[in-house]
Specification:
The chain is an alpha/beta fold and 435 residues long. It has 16 helices and 17 strands. It binds 4'-deoxy-4'-aminopyridoxal-5'-phosphate.
């Protein structure tokens, strides 16, 4: 423990002051059963700083109106705030505003992509879309570590088009099997979709290598950036992916809002998924023509106050600085993993060393069900997630049906990680399975 102790006592100069940031999050002031709330479930959904809550309430109380419509003053103000929000969120991921379409979240974004490719396959979208069409025998490749949101839409697309769904296996240590990846991805691969960070393993996947593999195969690359967006400096164009998705509620923002990023040529070629108002140029009773991206993918009334709330969230994160966020969470990550892996009977899922990670650990406690661990910790005010975390194939691969997951955020302190470790270290004795 020598080296880890040194890490715990000397924070780098870039580390943020988590204890001070806590005052920005109204929810953190409360007690659970007489204990202060220790919120370690940010990977499921993040807590919201007052700046986000105020931005949404401020819009609803002062500027609420339908955007892109109406000649009145409020409509103009609302439209300006809405498009400013797009620019802020796009800028947060290194993109231009026209490269960002609003979605309801990562699940909605991934379904949008899969349905758009299905529509291209059905001949919709004209000549430009034909490059995206799938034929029977074409392959779609995902990883064994997917959240169901980046698996089931592809299963459905394969079933609709006759394409074959394949996967890159995960090694015992949680890393993706690079040799297997090189043989699974081939000239038959048309789509390679993978998580930047698995919501169970917390390991940052080698995006550049995977994108290079996908590109060499002529495949469309899709990144699920749901878990990485709140925790890493993100430059999607620099990563080279064709498309990416993320969810607002996981990055200190509101529910019901997320982003679909795309390279301009790819978005241009994609036919719409949802159709209706606000995404058209001309409509007759027989047919319609569509606006260019991003509006082509934004049918219907948009989640305007949520977009403004999400912009406040990325401004808040930018105000802290994503490098500082990363430095702080790296300290937490080491402390959490060092602490948990030293407890007898605790097995971390995917415990590879020497890889970049988020402060997120899923683990199994020998002979104690994950739900019992969750309840035991809850009695101390510690909120963790238990279950399969929408990643059943990955849990099956590790021979279990459920795990306990602790995940940190900008406001998490080292003392909270210590409380988690202390709590978990007492679980087996409490349930009488430590002998
Ligand atoms: N992908 C990953 C890696 C996730 O962690 C999640 C949410 N747990 C999703 C996709 C789906 O996000 P949402 O439920 O916000 O649509």
């Amino acid at each position: 423990m020598g080296s880890s102790t040194a890490l715990h006592t000397s924070a780098p100069p870039t580390a943020l002051d988590a204890a001070a940031l806590r005052a920005d999050f109204p929810i953190l002031g409360q007690q659970v059963d007489g204990s202060p709330l220790i919120y370690l479930d940010s990977a499921a959904t993040s807590q919201k700083p007052r700046a986000v809550i105020d931005a949404e309430v401020g819009f609803l109380t002062r500027a609420n109106s339908a955007v892109h419509r109406g000649a009145h003053t409020l409509a103009g103000e609302a439209t300006e705030l809405f498009e400013d929000a797009r620019a802020a969120v796009a800028g947060f991921v290194g993109a231009a505003p026209e490269q960002l379409a609003w979605t309801a979240g990562a699940t909605a974004g991934l379904n949008l992509i899969a349905y758009s490719l299905g529509n291209a396959t059905a001949g919709r979208g004209g000549v430009a879309s034909q490059a995206l069409a799938l034929r029977p025998g074409d392959e779609i490749v995902v990883t064994e570590s997917e959240h169901h949101a980046n698996l089931i839409p592809w299963q459905e697309l394969a079933a609709r088009t006759g394409a074959v769904l394949r996967h890159i296996p995960v090694r015992d240590d949680g890393t993706l099997d690079a040799e297997a990846a090189a043989s699974v991805v081939s000239s038959r691969t048309r789509v390679l979709s993978f998580p930047h960070v698995s919501n169970v393993l917390g390991i940052v996947n080698p995006v550049a290598e995977l994108v290079a593999l996908g590109r060499a195969a002529g495949a469309l690359t899709v990144l699920d950036a749901c878990q990485s967006a709140p925790h890493l400096p993100l430059d999607l164009p620099a990563l080279g992916v064709d498309l990416a998705v993320f969810s607002g509620h996981k990055m200190l923002g509101p529910y019901g809002i997320g982003g679909l990023y795309g390279r301009a040529e790819v978005l241009d070629a994609m036919p719409p998924f949802l159709t209706g108002g606000s995404m058209i140029t001309t409509v007759t009773l027989d047919e319609a023509s569509y606006l260019p991206p991003p509006q082509r993918f934004e049918a219907g009334t948009q989640p305007v106050s949520q977009a403004i709330g999400l912009a406040a969230a990325v401004r808040y994160l930018d105000g802290i600085g994503m490098d500082a966020v990363r430095a702080h969470e790296t300290l937490l990550e080491r402390r959490m993993r060092d602490g948990l892996r030293a407890i007898p009977g605790v097995r971390l899922l995917g415990d590879a060393d020497g890889v970049a990670r988020l402060a997120l650990s899923a683990f199994d406690v020998d002979r104690v069900h994950a739900h019992d661990v969750g309840q035991f910790l809850d009695a101390r005010g510690i909120a963790v997630r238990v279950g399969h975390h929408c990643a059943q194939p990955l849990h099956r691969r590790f021979g279990i049906t459920a795990s306990v997951r602790a995940s940190a955020s900008v406001f998490t302190t080292e003392a909270e990680i210590d409380a988690l470790v202390e709590g978990v270290s007492e679980v087996r004795a409490f349930f009488g399975v430590d002998r």
